[in-house]
Amino acid sequence: MSWTPDELMTVNAARALAGARTCFVGIGLPSAAANLARRTVRPGLVLIYESGTLGSKPSRLPLSIGDGELADTADAVVSVPEIFNYWLQAGRIDVGFLGAAQVDRYANINTTVIDRGPGRPEGRLPGAGGAPEIAAGCGKVLMVVRHSRRNLVERLDFVTTVGHGSGPGDRARLGLPGAGPVAVITDLGVLRPDPETAELVLTELHPGVSAEQAAEATGWKLRTAPDVGETEPPTAEELAALRELSDRGA
C-alpha cells in the first residue's frame, strides 16, 4: 500500500477518537478525521457541528458547517444557542477537534490574521467561529495541522483560541473548565503537552519520518520525549474508507 502524508495524518487523527462518545467537529482536516473515525475505529461516535446538527452521518465530507448533508443526516437539528449553551458550555461534549493556521508551543491557535510583513496588509483568515468556546468547554481538544514553520510558529500573529496560554495554571486562572489540547497530530508525527510545562513535545513519529525532520519543520526549539514512538501505518480498510469519503466530496 502507498499513502500520502495527508492520508497518514488523517488516519492517525481518526484513531485518536477511538474512545470518544461525542465530538464537536471543525470543518476541514478535523471533519475528515472525525468522519473517518465513525467509519472505522468508533462507529458510534456522535458528530456535532456548530450549525446545530447533532449526530450527523454525512456520506461525504461536508463543505462547511452549513452543508445541507449535515442536517439531512442528523439525529436532531437544534439552534446554535442550544449547541453552545446546553451542550458545549455545560460540559456535555467529550472532544473538540480543531484545525489552525498557526499553533504555538503551548497549543494556542491563530485563525484570525497573518502578519505579511512591513508595508503589506494583514492576511485575513476565516476567524474564530466556535473554536474559542470549543477549546474552553470540551472535555479535551485534539488538533490536526500540517507540520511546517508556517503553521507551527514561535509566536502567533494573533491569539484567536487559548490552548494552554503561557504555561501551567493559565487555563484555571482564566476559568476554562476543559483539559484543553491533549494532542496535535501533524503529517510528520504527534505532539503532546508536557505534564509539567504544558509545552508541546514530540512523542510519536510517522513511518519514515525522523526527529530531525520534525524539529526542522517547527518554528520553536522542539523538545522530544525520552522514548519517541512510531505510529502504525494506515490499514487497507482505513485508506479505502478515507478515499471513499474524499471521492464523494470532490
Molecular structure report:
- With 250 residues, the chain is an alpha/beta fold.
- The protein has one domain (5-249): 3-Layer(aba) Sandwich (Glutaconate Coenzyme A-transferase).
- It is built from eight helices and 14 strands.
- It has helices at 5-15, 29-39, 68-72, 80-88, 131-137, 170-174, 211-216, 236-249; strands spanning 22-25, 46-49, 53-54, 76-77, 95-98, 102-103, 109-110, 113-114, 123-124, 140-144, 181-185, 189-193, 200-205, 223-230.
- The strands form three sheets. Strands 4-3-2-1-5-10-11-12-13-14 form a ten-stranded mixed β-sheet, with helices on both faces. Strands 6-7 form a two-stranded antiparallel sheet. It has a two-stranded antiparallel sheet with strand order 8-9.
- Helix 2 crosses helix 8.
- The chain starts with a helix and ends with a helix.
Shape: globular
Strand proportion: 15-25%
If you compute it from the alpha carbons, what radius of gyration comes out, rounded to the nearest whole angstrom? Answer: 17 Å
- Please describe the biggest sheet, giving its number of strands, its sense, and whether it closes into a barrel: 10 strands, mixed
Write down the domain tally. 1
The tally of helices reads 8
End-to-end span in angstroms? 22 Å
**CATH class assignment:** Alpha Beta
Strand arrangement, largest sheet?
A: 4-3-2-1-5-10-11-12-13-14
The total strand number stands at: 14
The H-level CATH homologous superfamily, spelled out, is Glutaconate Coenzyme A-transferase
* Helical content (DSSP H or I, runs of 4+): 25-40%
Report the CATH architecture.
3-Layer(aba) Sandwich
Given helix and strand content, the structural type is alpha/beta
| Unreliable spans | none
The pLDDT mean sits at 95
Secondary-structure element order, N to C: HEHEEHEHEEEEEHEHEEEHEH
CATH-defined topology:
Glutaconate Coenzyme A-transferase
InterPro entries: CoA_trans_fam_I, NagB/RpiA_transferase-like
Keywords: Transferase
Protein name: 3-oxoadipate--succinyl-CoA transferase subunit B
Family: Belongs to the 3-oxoacid CoA-transferase subunit B family.
